[in-house]
């Protein structure tokens, strides 16, 4: 199945959901943040609330709905237990060019437990690396806007998150979805984990699939169609695009200052804890 992660459902998201359903032949369900109230949808809905997450043993920091994108997989697993693989795709992803159906078909033939962008060992300058440090693991990273997990991987990750939820040290340095999922599955040693490019080469690059370079949706829609399938993120429309630019300016400035301080503190804490 495909989980489409969003906070609201509008005409653009409905069109994207239709495109994904037609290309993949899979059930598409919205993962909706309903901490602020009920959101009406035209497709099956997975509700994201603090109460639901805590009911399955998950620790919920104040920013969990943003930081912990993996929680959507666990809620989907409870609601749709028959699925063998779960895609999670964020609302601000878009695919352009021929071959989207062929891409999903190629992934369906691949039995990897994790398919994600930018999967690999986390370098020291990656912000979330320090949250995944422990004396018995190598921190890994991934980029989460388009991620597929096997049912077995989801079950393993939930068990680890619940175990971490009981640990004071871990709760106070709670890893985000990308660091947690990549590090946990890579450390397992029994699971098949890989980058999306191993299934579909040239699917994305540093210019099309990023965190810091928003793409204006209105401009993307009128661009000539690519000769190959390309995955874009973040694609935003109207005021959402302007708001993203403003937030990024603040975030980059703050993180550049905090990174140096936190790296020293977290490296010492890492020696005290196991993954």
Descriptors for this entry?
single chain, 275 residues, alpha/beta, seven-stranded mixed beta sheet, two-stranded antiparallel sheet, 11 strands, 41% helix, globular
Write the layout of secondary structure elements.
Layout: E1 2-6, H1 11-24, E2 28-33, E3 45-48, H2 50-55, H3 64-67, H4 71-79, E4 85-90, E5 94-96, H5 100-109, E6 114-121, E7 140-150, H6 151-165, H7 168-171, H8 177-188, E8 193-195, E9 215-216, H9 217-222, E10 230-232, E11 235-236, H10 239-270
What would your notes on this structure say?
This protein is α/β, with parallel strands linked by helices. 41% of the residues lie in helices and 19% in strands. It is built from 10 helices and 11 strands. It has helices at residues 11-24, 50-55, 64-67, 71-79, 100-109, 151-165, 168-171, 177-188, 217-222, 239-270; strands at residues 2-6, 28-33, 45-48, 85-90, 94-96, 114-121, 140-150, 193-195, 215-216, 230-232, 235-236. The strands form 3 sheets. Strands 3-2-1-4-7-6-8 form a 7-stranded mixed β-sheet. The chain is globular, with a radius of gyration of 18 Å. The two termini are 30 Å apart.
- Order of the strands making up the biggest sheet: 3-2-1-4-7-6-8
Give the end-to-end Cα distance, rounded to a whole number of Å: 30 Å
The total count of helices amounts to 10
Q: Tally of extended strands?
A: 11
Helix-strand makeup class: alpha/beta
- Radius of gyration (Å): 18 Å
Order of helices and strands: EHEEHHHEEHEEHHHEEHEEH
């Amino acid at each position: 199945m495909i989980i489409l992660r969003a906070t609201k459902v509008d005409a653009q998201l409905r069109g994207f959901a239709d495109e994904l359903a037609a290309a993949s032949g899979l059930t598409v369900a919205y993962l909706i943040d309903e901490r602020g109230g009920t959101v009406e949808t035209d497709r099956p809905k997975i509700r994201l609330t603090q109460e639901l997450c805590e009911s399955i043993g998950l620790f919920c920091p104040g920013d969990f709905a943003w930081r912990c994108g993996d929680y959507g997989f666990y809620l989907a697993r409870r609601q749709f237990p028959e699925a063998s693989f779960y895609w999670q795709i964020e609302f601000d992803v878009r695919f352009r060019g021929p071959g989207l159906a062929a891409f999903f078909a190629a992934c369906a033939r691949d039995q990897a437990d994790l398919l994600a962008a930018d999967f690999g060992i986390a370098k020291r300058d990656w912000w979330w690396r320090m949250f995944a440090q422990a004396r018995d693991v190598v921190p890994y990273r991934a980029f989460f806007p388009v991620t597929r997990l096997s049912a077995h991987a989801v079950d393993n990750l939930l068990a680890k998150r619940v175990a971490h939820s009981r640990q004071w040290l871990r709760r106070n340095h709670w890893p985000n979805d990308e660091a947690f999922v990549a590090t946990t599955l890579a450390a397992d040693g029994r699971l098949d984990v890989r980058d999306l490019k191993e299934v579909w080469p040239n699917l994305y690059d540093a210019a099309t699939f990023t965190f810091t370079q928003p793409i204006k949706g209105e401009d993307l829609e009128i661009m000539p169609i690519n000769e190959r399938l390309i995955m874009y993120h973040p694609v935003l429309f109207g005021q959402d695009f302007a708001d993203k630019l403003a937030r990024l300016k603040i975030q980059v400035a703050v993180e550049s200052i905090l990174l140096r301080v936190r790296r020293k503190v977290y490296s010492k804490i890492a020696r005290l804890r196991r993954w």
